Structure prediction request, 43 residues.
Amino acid sequence: MKNFTLLVIAVLVAAFATAGCNAWHGAGTDIKNAGRNIENSGK
Prediction:
């Protein structure tokens, strides 16, 4: 069971490492735009 847990963690880390750069950049841009829209709605 311990080996299976380590395998699952390793697979998840590998998946995030390969797809993480573009996904995090896109998510950061979306969050920034949402914050800007919230700021502008208060004006």
The chain has a mean pLDDT of 79. Helices lie at 2-41. The two ends are 56 Å apart (CA to CA). DSSP finds one helix and no strands in the chain.
